[in-house]
UniProtKB/TrEMBL annotation:
Spans traversing the lipid bilayer: 14-36
Pathway in which this enzyme or protein is active: Glycolipid biosynthesis; lipid IV(A) biosynthesis; lipid IV(A) from (3R)-3-hydroxytetradecanoyl-[acyl-carrier-protein] and UDP-N-acetyl-alpha-D-glucosamine: step 6/6
GO biological process, alphabetically ordered: lipid A biosynthetic process; lipopolysaccharide core region biosynthetic process
Gene: lpxK
Protein's name in the database: Tetraacyldisaccharide 4'-kinase
Pfam families linked to this entry: LpxK (PF02606)
Positions in coiled-coil regions: none
Metal-binding recorded as keyword: no
GO cellular component: plasma membrane
Keywords, ordered alphabetically: ATP-binding, Kinase, Lipid A biosynthesis, Lipid biosynthesis, Lipid metabolism, Membrane, Nucleotide-binding, Transferase, Transmembrane, Transmembrane helix
Length: 338
């Protein structure tokens, strides 16, 4: 299904034309919803600390999670105590709940668990992001809140907005869901504070201030670090099998090839795929199995010894880091004065 969707959104598949009436209906519904917020008929909640939304106007992956981790580390390096809220997509839990060391992907979602394991930052998930954000303030005394996704979650008032775009795929056919990947029209980008372009190239004739982000791979890590393993991470010459259950699996497969890994089989799964040991063992057999860090958090409990994940770190310009910290510092001071 994901392959067909990508063909429609990012190719020239004829099904787009059949889906356009549904896109028109989607436009009417979302426009009405935004109008209700503007008229005050739907409530927006403003919080006592700055809120930074990291999201996009397209469905599917564009690099939000590495960006959130970068911002967390940047804020912590500058002496602040950030917290993160997320919907917890794919989780079975209800209400708002904090992510802990004992949380599972089924309880809180794969991306929130990955962010927490990487940063150990205070994190709360729940579909009602306002309640999740307030829990961060009440229980963890945070200085600033990062909202992982939620550009269209207007009930939570935000102070800064960052929109991600996949530099290779951009905005596809520029149609709204379901004929295209857009959650909102391109006009929405006029109101965000930064557009972060994942991988480039930057668009020269774009009036928006796009910031280039590169994802730098780190050394392979064992999926299950508790196993006393006789295996070492595969060398470039070793034949490997790769899997990915992310928004753009091909980006991951291409990155492995560019680094020199000998990938003999690459299998794309649906985003947020729930894995089973039997399926992955059948794919890998005796070969090393390579996956993303997001996939790894769902496989740790049953991972074989020769399964590995590739961590990536977002790299943004010092200019962006300075701009971001300057804006956040000003917002914190203004909130305290009010």
């Amino acid at each position: 299904m994901q392959k067909l969707v990508n063909q429609i959104w990012y190719g020239k598949h004829w099904l787009k034309w059949l889906l356009l009436p549904l896109s028109a209906l989607f436009a009417v519904i979302t426009s009405l919803r935004r109008l209700l917020f503007r008229l005050g008929l739907k409530t927006r909640s403003q919080l006592s600390v700055p809120v930074v939304v990291v999201g996009n106007i397209t469905a599917g992956g564009s690099g939000k999670t590495p960006t959130v981790i970068h911002l967390i580390n940047l804020l912590k390096a500058n002496g602040l105590q950030p917290g993160v809220v997320s919907r917890g997509y794919g989780s079975s839990g209800t209400g708002v709940r904090a992510v802990t060391n004992s949380s599972t992907p089924d309880e809180v979602g794969d991306e929130p668990l990955m962010i927490y394991q990487r940063t150990q930052v205070a994190m709360v998930v729940g579909s009602q992001r306002v309640l999740a954000a307030q829990k961060l303030i009440d229980d963890f005394n945070v200085d600033v809140i990062i909202c992982d996704d939620g550009l269209q979650h207007y009930a939570l008032e935000r102070d800064l907005e960052i929109a991600l775009v996949d530099g290779a795929r951009r905005y596809g056919n520029e149609c709204l869901i379901p004929a295209g990947p857009l959650r909102e029209g391109l006009w929405r980008l006029n109101s965000v504070d930064w557009i972060i372009n994942n991988g480039g190239p930057l668009v020269a004739d774009n009036n928006m201030n796009e910031q280039l982000m590169l994802l730098e791979p780190a050394p392979l890590q064992a999926v299950n670090t508790d196993l006393a393993t006789e295996f070492v991470a595969p060398n470039f010459d070793d034949e490997c099998v790769a899997i990915a259950g992310i928004g753009n699996p091909q980006r991951f497969f291409d990155s492995l090839t560019q680094q020199g890994f000998n990938v003999v089989k690459a299998v794309a799964f649906e985003d947020h795929q729930a894995y089973q040991a039997k399926t992955l063992n059948a794919l890998a057999k005796q070969s090393p199995l390579l996956m993303t860090e997001k996939d790894a958090v769902k496989c740790r409990e049953f991972a074989s010894q020769n399964w590995w994940y590739l961590p990536v770190n977002a790299k943004l310009s010092k200019e962006f880091d300075h701009q971001f910290m300057s804006r956040v510092t000003q917002l914190i001071q203004r909130k305290k004065e009010n």
